[in-house]
């Protein structure tokens, strides 16, 4: 499994799990559409490869901090 923050721009994967022990972080990700089985693509990174990153989740585009994106574990689609 590959954390979402380590994907290359343009790479498409499927969400396998959320690796958070913090219920608030897990809830935040679920509210933004990060659920198991959903297809995600890394669109681009912030300046110098840092925060925020832009991710396509299903049909939505979402901006995330890399620390939160690291909690989303992905597998090949």
UniProtKB/TrEMBL annotation:
Residues annotated as domain Ferrous iron transporter FeoA-like: 2-76
Iron keyword on record: yes
SUPFAM superfamilies reported in the protein's UniProt record: C-terminal domain of transcriptional repressors
Gene Ontology MF annotations: transition metal ion binding
Keywords, sorted A to Z: Iron
Protein name in UniProt: Ferrous iron transport protein A
């Amino acid at each position: 499994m590959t954390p979402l923050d380590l994907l290359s721009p343009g790479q498409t994967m499927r969400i396998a799990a959320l690796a958070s022990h913090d219920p608030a972080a897990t809830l935040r990700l679920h509210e933004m559409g990060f659920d198991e089985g959903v297809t995600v693509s890394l669109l681009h990174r912030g300046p110098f490869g840092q925060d925020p990153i832009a991710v396509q989740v299903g049909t939505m585009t979402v901006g995330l901090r890399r620390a939160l994106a690291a909690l989303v574990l992905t597998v090949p689609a």
